Amino acid sequence: MFEDKTTIIGIAGGTGSGKTTVVKKIVEALPPHYVAVMPLDSYYNDTSHLTDEERHAINFDHPDAFDWKLLHKQVNDLREGRAIEQPTYSYLQCNRLPETIHVEPKPVIIIEGIMTLLNKKLRDLMDLKIFVDCDPDERLIRNIQRDTIDRGRTVSMVVERYLEVLKPMHEQFIEPTKRFADIIIPQGGENTRGISILRNYIEGLVPKE
Predict the structure, then answer these.
(1) 15 is an annotated ligand-binding site residue
(2) Which part of the chain is the Phosphoribulokinase/uridine kinase domain (predicted)?
(3) Does 73 count as an annotated binding residue?
(4) Is 20 annotated as ligand-binding?
């Protein structure tokens, strides 16, 4: 159905870099119902077979935490015109939820997440690769704001996790993927000019009626 004209966009960047803002601006620039967004966070491995203690011990900022095979399959399904049942994930339960989200094929597919550009097989499906860059201190502040409100963590818990897990994982796995990007957007979601240029480019990919 959409195989010949589907545009697949990968958007990566550190946690708290502003990826969601960039995705939102792109979606707003395109016709309604034109975009399918596939958050990498929805594709954490199913850990139903593990105990609560084992689940909470998982490093969710390591590539091994993601179900790359399922993500690649579902991106490919959408590209070839097949609807998917996208998994959903609970940060509070550290596991997938029974509910899925029905996603129909769309002309534009956006894959968004911290390690979106890490997996070569997935990267090879992309027509445009974007890395959203942001200063580490700003990302830390955004993590504190988000996790204390949405994920029930204290400030000290967020800072400790940032220093022990997020920072080393970012330096080892996320930052190096910047070299795969076609476009790098500094200052994350605050870079209105960069996002505007990106929007104009993507709008140009949309067939005119």
Answers:
(1) yes
(2) 8-191
(3) no
(4) yes
